[in-house]
Write a structure and sequence with these properties.
The strands form 3 sheets. The chain has a 7-stranded mixed β-sheet with strand order 3-2-1-4-9-6-10, sandwiched between helices. Strands 5-11 form a two-stranded antiparallel ribbon. Helix content is 40%, strand content 16%. It is globular and about 40 Å long. The chain has 9 helices and 11 strands. The two termini are 35 Å apart.
Length: 256
């Protein structure tokens, strides 16, 4: 079983040594090499990285990698295989992934739960919601069969977030065809330059929600795996920023 998981990064960082992982320098166009596979070779959208984030790495993998399964992880966030140990020791190995994937279509991260918010209200409170609304309009026009799943998702309180997955190549092909068709149309309709650099990255945030929309319409046999953060999460600060956004309307200004 040939599994290749790209690890999207924009800077030098410690990477898993397992050969399943391929560190990819996202937004490499016009940048100095950091020693990892750049995302500006072959067919690519590397120049869109300032707004598309890790999706330029996904696009590169979709167009240029050949493997039975292709996945996406992040330099600070990986799939977990062990429950204990230092973060890097807990990262899913190729052998563990092969076992999980036996007879399955893919691996997804455990759902992130918002409890007191729906996915839509959380997005609306923390970010500018117009791009997400316009993505819904695009679905209604180009993929009407997906619209019920989109409306249902907005009312949910949990989802497979972080733009992380490992899927059979045929499903990556189908998902990315759908995803980038929607996002490229969104790019035509929403001027990212109207937002600051943080909020201009809405393509990555919209895509987090579109994954479950696509999965709802195309049910696959997937298993969930925990997410391992390479750096400590300041939950007090994160929670405080969320409450500030929810009750005062102050949008997020950075990632947590």
């Amino acid at each position: 079983m040939d599994i290749k998981v790209i690890v999207a990064t924009h800077k030098p960082y410690a990477m898993p040594e397992d050969p399943m992982y391929l560190p990819v320098h996202v937004g490499a166009a016009g940048k100095q090499s950091i020693g990892f596979q750049p995302d500006n070779t072959g067919e690519n959208i590397s120049e869109k990285n300032a707004t598309f984030c890790e999706l330029t790495g996904l696009y590169w993998a979709w167009k240029n990698l050949d493997a039975d399964y292709i996945g996406l992880a992040h330099y600070r966030r990986h799939f977990g295989g062990k429950r204990r140990g230092k973060p890097m020791e807990r990262v899913l190995t190729g052998a563990q992934a092969a076992t999980l994937l036996e007879g399955r279509d893919g691996i997804l991260p455990g759902k992130r739960k918002y409890y007191i918010e729906t996915l839509y209200s959380h997005y609306e409170h923390t970010c500018y919601v117009e791009p997400l609304d316009i993505a819904g309009e695009i679905l209604a026009e180009k993929y009407p069969a997906y619209l019920p799943a989109f409306q249902k998702l907005k009312k949910r309180t949990s989802a497979h977030m972080f733009n992380m997955f490992i899927l059979k190549k045929e499903h990556v092909d189908a998902y990315c065809t759908f995803l980038f068709d929607v996002l490229f149309e969104l790019e035509k309709r929403v001027d990212a330059s109207a937002y600051d650099s943080f909020h201009a990255r809405f393509f990555g945030r919209v895509s987090e929600l579109l994954l479950d929309v696509w999965m709802e319409q195309n049910p696959l046999n997937c298993v969930e795996a925990p997410v391992v953060n390479m750096e400590p999460v300041n939950w007090f600060k994160k929670g405080g920023s969320f409450l500030l956004a929810k009750f005062t309307g102050k949008k997020y200004g950075k990632s947590f």
